[in-house]
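Model: You mentioned two targets. I'll fold them one after the other.
Researcher: Yes, keep them separate.
Model: Target one:
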Amino acid sequence: MISSIKQSPYSFVSTDFLPKKRSIARPQFSPLPIIKNIHNGFPDQSFSSSKPLHVASIENLGVLKRTQQQRKTECQAYEADRSRPLDINIELPDEDARLEAAKRVKIGIYFATWWALNVVFNIYNKKVLNAFPFPWLTSTLSLAAGSLMMLISWATRVADAPKTDFEFWKTLFPVAVAHTIGHVAATVSMSKVAVSFTHIIKSGEPAFSVLVSRFLLGEAFPLSVYLSLLPIIGGCALSAVTELNFNMTGFMGAMISNLAFVFRNIFSKKGMKGKSVSGMNYYACLSMLSLLILTPFAIAVEGPQLWAVGWQKAVSQIGPNFVWWVVAQSVFYHLYNQVSYMSLDQISPLTFSIGNTMKRISVIVSSIIIFHTPVQPVNALGAAIAILGTFLYSQAKQ
C-alpha cells in the first residue's frame, strides 16, 4: 500500500522533540528507516499507524525556523509486511501440460516396447519352427511360459492377483477359445510361409471385422469404412498372388487367425463390460484358460512321440542354442501380448489400431532383412497397399 505523508501546516518547534535545546539535531536515517507513530508530534492530525512504515522516498525534507516560510514535506511509504510487487515474469510450467507430456512419453515407451518385443518374438518363433516344425507344441509352450510367469508374479506379490469369480471365467471362456484358435493358426501359418507374408495377410483383419460385425451382428458403418477395405483386400490379394513361396496351408492359417481374432475381440467387448481387471491380469487369465483348452488338442494332433523325435533332431542340428530359442520365443510371446493389453488401459482404440499397423510394418521389414526373404517389387507394392488400407480403416472407423 502506498501512503503519502504531508507535513502539518504547523511548523516544527524545539519543544516538540528536544525540550531543553532550541535547535534540532539533523535527523539520521538508516537505509530503511521506520517511521513510528508520531501522533504527539502532530497534535491536530489524526494520524496513526498500526504497522511500521518503511520510507521509500523523501523530497525536500527540512526543518524551518518559526519565522521562515513553511515548506511542504512529502514522504511516500509502504507497509512493512507487504512489499511492492516486482515486475518479474517467472513462467512456471503448466501442470496439465506437464502431465500430458509425461503421458505421451509413457505411451511412446509402451509402443516402442511392444514393437521391439513383437519383432524379437517373430524372429525366434520362425527360427524354432524352421528347426522344429511342430506349431501345436510351440503354441502350447508360449502359453505355458506366460502362465508360469504370472503365477510366480502373483505368488511373490510382484503383481497383485486379480479378484475373479465364476462369472468372470464363464465370460472369459469364449474369448479364450477364439484366442487359442487364432494363436495356433498364426503359428501354423508361420511354419509354412515367410513371416512377412503371414503378417501381410494378417493386416487384412479389419476386413473380417467389418464383415462379421455387419452380417452377424447387424452393425452399420459409414461409406468411408467400406471404401477403406478395398485397398486392404486388394493389397493382400496382390501379395498372395506374387508370393514366391506361396503355400495354401500358410495362407489359410493366416486367414483363420484373422477371423478368430475378430471373434475374440467381439467376445471380449461383450463379456468384459464392467469388469475391474487390469490389462496385464486379464491377459494372464486368458493365457491360462487358453493353455487348458489347447493342451489336449496339441497332444492329439502331434503327440509326445513326434515331439521327442523332432526335439532330438533339432538339438543335434542346432545345438544347445535351440533350447534358448524355444525359451526366448515363449517368453517374448507373453511379454509382447502383455504390453499390448497394458497399453489398452492407457490409449484409445484408434491409437492402438494405428500402433498395431506400425507394428506389422516393423515386423515385415525386420523379418525380410534378417531372413533374407526374396521380395518382388509387385509383392512389396501389395504389402504397402494393404498396410495403407489398414491405416485408412482406422481413421474412417473413428
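Model: Target two:
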Amino acid sequence: MGYGMSRLEEEYCEPEGQNSDGSSSFQVNDEFAKLHNDIFHMTRMRSGLTESMDKSMGAKRGKISTTKLLSGREVDRSGKGMFSSGERAFVLGRYLPKDGPELLDRMDSRAYVSQFSADGSLFVAGFQGSHIRIYDVDRGWNIHKDIHARSLRWTISDVSLSPDQRFLVYSSLAPIVHIVNVGNAARESYANVTDIHDGLDFSQHVDVQYSFGIFSVKFSSDGRELVAGSNDDSIYVYDLHENKLTLRLPAHTSDVNTVAFADETGHLIYSGSDDNLCKVWDRRCLSTGEAAGVLTGHLHGVTHIDSRGDGRSFISNGKDQAIKLWDIRKMMSNADSYADRVPSWDYRYSRYPQQYKQIKHPHDQSLATYRGHSVLRTLIRCYFSPAYSTGQKYIYTGSYDASVYVYDVVSGTQVEKLKGHQLAIRDCSWHPFDPTLVSSSWDGRVLKWTSNPEQETSDVD
C-alpha cells in the first residue's frame, strides 16, 4: 500500500534505522561480494583517480587537492591532455550539494514527485492538489509549464518526462495515465480546456475486470513505451506508437509499488512490491509468465527501485527502513517462504518497531544494506548519484524525518544529511551534471541545495 490517511504525527523526531548513538548503519551482506564484486570495483574506478595519475602527481592514493589536480591537467602530467571520466567524477564528486537550502516554490498541498530531465534543463514537481509544475532550470527556475491535472484519485503518484522532453505522463490511483504535450508555448495547461490531456487506459486488458491504481510509471529510453506498476499486483506495458496496452503481467502477490527499465535496451524490467520481493523480468522470454529471477532480502515492502543503468545492478528502498544494493546475477528462480514468518506491520499507522531492526533475512541476496533514513506513510524514493559528476559513488534518498540522506556506495558511510523541510520528503533529484539537488516535501516546499565552489577540500578520499 502506497498511501495512508493515518494520524501518525506530522512532526517526526525518533531516528529510524540508526545505531544507538544516532549514526547510520551499514551492512555488507557478503564479505566476498564486498571484496570482489565488480559493482564495488567499477564504482571505485568510475569515481577515482587512475594509477597513472596518482603516480604522476606523486600523491598517496586518493589524497590530493583539487588545485593540484587542475594544475597537473594543465601541464598534461597524465599524457592525455584531459581528465578521464573517473578523474572528472573524482573532482566533481567532492562538491556535494549541501549548501542552502534555497526556496524555489511553495504550494498549499503535499509534494510527491521531484525529477530533473535527462539533460538537466527542466525540473518537474508533482503535488497532491492536482498541480504539476515544470521549471526552466536554465532561465532562473521560471515556471515553464503549470499543469492542472485531470481525474485525480488521491494524489499524483508519479510523473515521467519523455526522453525528447516533448511529453509528460502522470498517474494517480486510477487505471488511466494522462499524457500532455509540454513542448508547446502555452504556460498554463488545463486538462481539456487549454490542452488535451489524453487518457491512456491501462485497464483495457481482457483479464482486467475491476479498477485499480498506478503507483509508478516510466518512459522507455526510446520514448515508445510506458511501463507501470499497479495495486492490482501487476506490471503493464503500453505502446504509445500503437496506442494500446501490449502487456499485463500478474507479477507479485501484493501492490507493485515501483518499476524501472534496467537499461536502454528495454529488455529487462525491475519491479518491487509489498510482498517484500524484487523481481527481474526478461521481455524476450515471457511465454511462461514467470520472472527471470527473484531477489530476497527486504523484510517489508519495497517502495522504490533505481537502476544503475548497466543491466545488472540496482538499489531498492524498503519499508524495513533500509536501502539494498543488488546484483541480478545472484537472483534465484523462486522466493523462499521466510516472508511469511516476518511479523506484520503497517507503515501508515506506526513507527517501525525497534525489535524488528534486529531481524535479518536468512537468505538475503543483496550486496549491501544502508540504514539511517526513515520510510513511513509514503513510498519514499532512493537513487544513485549522477554518473557524469560522481561516477555513481553515492546513494541518496528522501526520508520521513524531513531530511535527505546521502550514503557512500562502497563504504556505506552517511556522508551528508540535508535538513530544511518540516515534513516528509518523498522524492528528491540530483542534477545530472551540476552539484545541485532539489527536494520536494509534504510541507509543500521545493528546496534547492548547491555546493559552494570556494570551499576547497584539499585532502578528501
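Researcher: Noted. Anything on target two?
Model: The longest strand covers residues 99-106.
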